[in-house]
């Protein structure tokens, strides 16, 4: 792969890409950075809208990543860069020598969900109510994609979906799983108006154990904030309250663990009812 090589950290492109390390820069540009051979490979294979790739020409890329770079759309810009340049675009202690610029998801929630409900009788969604920890969010998205969740709605006030820690924790699931950032109460009202049920995870006394709940049909599971749980606004809109039993002294489960248990139980019940 012989490409133009960028060696100066003062290069205008490098300076523009550095802005993507901050939320404001990502919001203004509509793009985000993906770092590391595995994630770049996943982004390219998934059909994500990759616009630019910079790689360290002095380092050996794995064969899968090299193969992915040989089958690019003609409008993807690929450039070699020095180790110093790539270090400026990295958030990790040991940069892997490759980064890509990816455009954010451009789908519109209203159009997407209407088409999905029309096409599928047993939709499974995940609503995330102000998840704050980037590692938790990334893990939840990775688990949701693995469990066959159709899409995720991320409530406003949550950690930025395109935060570097979130992106890395998804291990590529972000490129394949539709995720929408929305005002949750309004979205929940729209969802229920379209015939969807809303099941909120909570430890309240009037909730049912998660393994005794009916997950059939069109369902959205709500996972709450790490500190306060699901908001009162969402609790008030719930068709059913669901809890995961705690047998020890812990006050609650980690949000990512709770999400994993719920989506896999929902998937198990849905598969069994077919």
Keywords:
38% helix, alpha/beta, five-stranded mixed beta sheet, 274 residues, 11 helices
Could you tell me the strand content as a percent range? Answer: 15-25%
DSSP helical segment count: 11
Helical amount among residues, as a percent range? 25-40%
Number of strands: 12
Task: Characterise this structure.
This protein is an alpha/beta fold and 274 residues long. It has 11 helices and 12 strands. The N and C termini lie far apart (49 Å). The mean pLDDT is 91.
Lay out the secondary structure:
Blueprint: E1 5-6, H1 12-18, H2 23-29, E2 31-35, H3 37-46, E3 50-56, H4 63-69, E4 77-81, H5 83-88, E5 98-103, H6 109-119, E6 124-128, H7 134-146, E7 151-155, H8 164-170, E8 179-182, H9 184-193, E9 197-201, E10 208-209, E11 219-223, H10 232-237, E12 240-243, H11 255-273
Parallel strand pairs: 1-4, 3-4, 6-7, 6-11, 7-8, 9-11, 9-12, 10-12
Antiparallel strand pairs: 2-5, 3-5
């Amino acid at each position: 792969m012989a490409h133009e090589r960028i060696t100066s950290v003062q290069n205008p492109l490098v300076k523009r890409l550095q802005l993507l390390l901050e939320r404001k820069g990502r919001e203004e540009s509509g793009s985000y950075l993906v770092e590391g051979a595995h994630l770049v490979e996943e982004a390219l294979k998934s059909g994500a809208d990759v616009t630019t790739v910079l790689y360290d020409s002095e380092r050996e890329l794995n064969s899968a990543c090299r193969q992915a770079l040989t089958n690019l759309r003609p409008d993807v810009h690929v450039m070699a860069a020095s180790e110093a340049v790539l270090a400026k675009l990295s958030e990790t202690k040991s940069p892997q020598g490759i980064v890509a610029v990816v455009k954010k998801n451009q789908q519109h929630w209203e159009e997407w969900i209407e088409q999905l409900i029309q096409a599928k009788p047993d939709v499974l969604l995940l609503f995330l109510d102000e998840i704050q920890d980037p590692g938790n969010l990334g893990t939840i998205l990775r688990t949701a994609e693995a469990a066959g969740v159709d899409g995720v709605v991320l409530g406003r006030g949550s950690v930025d979906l395109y935060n570097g820690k979130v992106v890395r924790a998804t291990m590529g699931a972000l490129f394949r799983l539709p995720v929408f950032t929305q005002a949750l109460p309004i979205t929940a009202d729209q969802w229920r108006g379209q015939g969807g049920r809303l099941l909120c995870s909570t430890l309240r006394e009037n909730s049912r154990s998660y393994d005794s709940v009916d997950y059939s049909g069109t369902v959205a599971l709500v996972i709450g904030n790490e500190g306060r749980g699901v908001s009162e606004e969402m609790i008030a809109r719930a068709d059913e309250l669901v809890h995961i039993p705690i047998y020890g002294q812990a006050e609650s489960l980690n949000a990512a663990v709770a999400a994993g248990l719920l989506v896999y139980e929902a998937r198990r019940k849905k598969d069994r009812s077919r």
